[in-house]
Every structure is written in structure tokens, then in C-alpha cells.
Amino acid sequence: MLNFLPGPLVLVISILLTIAHTAFWATLIFLLSLVKFLPVPPLARLCTHINNLLMRGWLECNTLLIHLLNRIEWEIEDETELRSDGWYLVVCNHLSWTDIVVLGHLLRRRIPVPKFFLKHELIYVPLIGQACWGLDMPFMRRYSREYLLRNPHLRGKDIEATRTACQKFRDVPTTVINFVEGTRFTAEKRDQTRSPYRHLMAPKAAGLAFTLAAMGEQFDKMINVTLSYPDNSDKPFRDFLMGRMTRIRVHIEELPIGPEMVGDYFNDKPFKRQFHQWLNGLWAAKDARLARWEGEPESAPVVDDEQVAARSEAPL
After folding, report:
1. Which residues sit opposite 226 in a β-bridge?
2. How many other C-beta atoms are found inside a 10 Å radius of the C-beta of residue 38?
3. Do residues 229 and 236 lie in contact, with contact meaning Cβ atoms separated by under 8 Å?
4. What is the pLDDT, as a whole number, of residue 218?
5. What are the residues whose beta carbons fall under 8 Å from the beta carbon of 126, sequence distance 6 or more?
6. What are 234-274's pLDDT values in tens digits?
7. How far apart are CA 114 and CA 187, in angstroms?
8. pTM of the model
9. Which of 171, 161, 179 is nearest to 87 (CA)?
């Protein structure tokens, strides 16, 4: 434990260790992935398997950092029965970069290594982008409504391209993580965007609907995770890096993925309306849970589906 040291010193140590171990694993993954350029499918599949093991190595190093930097009291509500050979979609509220570390720590040995749907521009980030490519994470080109109006021939191409990129997941158990809010929660952002929730940003339904349209039939279950840092709510990532994280609350539940959750969100208006109602209900329950954790009286948020739908059209 290094939390007995001065916070600024712990911050420097944690940043250096994070950069070093991330660069190490990313370099290994990228170099091994060069094998994929050879036209030998069995070799490519072996490369994918080894890369997933290397990704687990990165997750284990993050767990070591958690134990090294902080003395955390975990409050976990979890009745799930997860499998390392399943296909899962994880949805979670987003408070901090710490969320990725926490999710990886809690789920690393229970489900397949996580994948993220990434903006195509991120492939150019040195080492990280190439490692994500080597891990077969889909890089998406999302088109705005205005762009599609000018180029109608591209309508549906983004979903179809992602579906094609996800074909390789049919034979490899996969977890996809989606931070539905699209940005980290702060009270200032909540007020600026007029979120109807007390502890959450309004969910961006388009991103989640896009993921389900591309891979919905492959997922076994949805894993709904709610996170809270009750003693470090202002700057959780900074406090984590400085060894000041004291308590983390987590609720994990499994939800079925029914056929009513998979459809053409961008062109089917009845489906879009139904999807918003389902997602807003899920987010209202999550907000109520966070309120209970804070000891606040529960009250149902007033959600205008049309306003939430408008905010959900932002690109992923």
C-alpha cells in the first residue's frame, strides 16, 4: 500500500506505472497482431486468442495498481451468474476514467475480455489505437443526420460495416462495454444539458441501439452496472491516482435482451419511441438506486422522450 505517502508523490508513481504497463501490453499486442496480415486464418485465430490473454494481463496489472495505491472498502450487490465463455453487453453509468479500471477489476475473470466500439479516428492514437485494432475492437464511422441527408446512399452503411466487423465475434466469446451517457457525469453537465435525472446524464439511446442492431442476436445477456464513489464524488480519478479512494459501491444485475430491443432505430419511428421508453425506464431505476445510496427521498424523474431523443442523435 502506497497511500501512506504524500498524495502528489503517489500521483506521480501511479501515472508512471500506468503509462509503463499500458505501453508494455499495447506494444506486445500490436507486434503480435502484425501476424494477421498473413493469409493464414488459423494463425489469425491463434493471434486473437493470445491477444485476449495479453488484454487480461493488462487488466490484472490494473488490479495490482488498485491494491497498491488504495485501501478500498467495496460495497458490492451482485447476484449474477456470469460465464467466461458467454457473450455480454455491459451498460454502466459513467463517473470517471476510474470506471474502466473498476469494471475490469470486478469482471476480469467472470466474462470475456471487454471490447469497445471506437470512433474511427482513435485508430491513429499511437500504440493504443493499434493495440485496439489488434484486439479486433470495431472502429466505426458514424454519420450525422445532416450528412446522411446530403448523402442518402450511405444510410445504413455504418450499421452494416459494424455488423461485418463483428462477424469475427461469432466464434470468440465477447464482452462489449457501452457507457450510455456518452460523457462523464458532473452536476454542471447535468444542469447544462437539463438532464431529468439527479445522478445521471440523459442516456444517448442512439449509441446503445446501434450496438444492439449490430450485435444484438449474439449477446446472451445485458449486464447492468451502477457505480458510485460516495467519499470521492468530486474527483474520483484524481483521488484514485493519489491513493485517496476509500469506498466504491457497485450494483450488478443481468437483464435479458429481447427481440423488441433490436431494430432500426434510425428509420423505424415506432421502434425508436419504444426503445426510448425502455431505456428511460432503465435509467430512472438506476437514478433511484443512486438516490437510495445517498439517503435521498426517491422521486420519479420527469422525462420528456422527445427532448431525450433529440440529445440521443449525437454521434457515438
Report:
1. 251
2. 10
3. yes
4. 86
5. none
6. 899 999 999 999 999 999 999 999 888 898 888 889 999 99
7. 29
8. 0.85
9. 171
